[in-house]
Backbone:
């Protein structure tokens, strides 16, 4: 039986065998610590009835751990050079399908429909390419895929922003976007030393548990997110000034905004970063009704 792919020696052997050179532009930092991979897979709570989507299998270090636990793993990999390597390293496993595609361009809903009919639940587990962490997570959430949870390794700084509570310095539109759809929890921080090559930033594993419905009921999601974005446009400005300057193209909305803040019982002199997701939802619904 071969050693696990993620052991430093086996990884080195595989990279040498194929003369593989890392592409920084594709966020290629591979994990070389089996213990960390076991812990990621454990945090995902996978059973033999779980269908798993992986993004960026690399040489298959995490894929292997997922395949040992899951019913089926479907992995999206953008780098063609990795396909023959994955064919080789993952050959002992029958329950893995690798799709050669940029996940941002993939029709993930169709893949789920096709591949996971016989699974009880679907989870995303990945060590994400750091140059596209946020677009990937937002795509998975905004497409309202039937996912149970997303457990991913990413930059610690991004994990902190996703999980931040109001009034925290990291709280902003990303916190609200992620918390609208999920309950986030950072489950571990990870040192740079467990990757080859080592990334420049600290890493963390975050678990996003998908909510049954959004955290707050809003009449128009697009408008809700426009309002959130406008509220954080200039962090040092008051909520009222940010909304007046950034929500509508013209300042004609000034009176409407002042009235809506009053109806919502929200002091316009507060800063956006002090508002809870519920307060944003309430304010968005009042303003939207006036449009
Ligand atoms: N899972 C492996 C591990 O943990 O060692 C590799 C993780 S590495 C951080 C990120 C992987 O994502 C690389 O294999 C890279 O080629 C791939 N990747 C980068 N951009 C991608 C994209 N847009 N769609 C799919 N895969 C991508």
Residues:
């Amino acid at each position: 039986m071969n050693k696990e792919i993620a052991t430093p020696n086996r990884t080195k052997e595989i990279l040498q065998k194929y003369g593989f050179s890392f592409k920084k532009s594709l966020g290629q930092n591979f994990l070389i610590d089996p213990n960390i991979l076991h812990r990621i897979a454990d945090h995902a709570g996978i059973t033999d009835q779980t269908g798993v989507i992986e993004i960026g299998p690399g040489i298959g270090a995490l894929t292997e751990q997922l395949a040992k636990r899951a019913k089926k793993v479907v992995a999206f990999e953008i780098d063609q050079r990795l396909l023959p390597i994955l064919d080789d390293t993952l050959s002992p496993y029958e329950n893995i399908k690798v799709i050669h595609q940029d996940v941002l361009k993939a029709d993930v809903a169709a893949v789920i429909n096709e591949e996971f009919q016989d699974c009880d639940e679907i989870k995303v587990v990945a060590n994400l390419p750091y140059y596209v962490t946020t677009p990937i997570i937002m795509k998975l959430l905004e497409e309202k895929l039937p996912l149970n949870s997303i457990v991913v390794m990413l930059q610690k700084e991004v994990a902190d922003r996703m999980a931040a509570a109001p009034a925290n310095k990291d709280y902003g539109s990303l916190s609200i976007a992620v918390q609208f759809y999920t309950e986030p929890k950072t489950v571990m921080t990870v040192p740079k030393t467990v990757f080859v090559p080592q990334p420049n930033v600290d890493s963390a594993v975050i678990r996003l548990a998908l909510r049954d419905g959004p955290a707050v009921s809003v009449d128009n999601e697009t408008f809700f997110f426009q309002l959130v974005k406008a509220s954080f446009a200039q962090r040092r400005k008051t909520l009222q000034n940010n909304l007046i300057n950034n929500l509508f193209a013209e300042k004609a909305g000034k009176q409407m905004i002042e009235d809506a803040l009053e109806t919502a019982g929200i002091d316009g002199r507060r800063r956006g970063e002090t508002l809870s997701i519920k307060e944003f939802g309430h304010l968005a619904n009042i303003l939207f009704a006036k449009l």
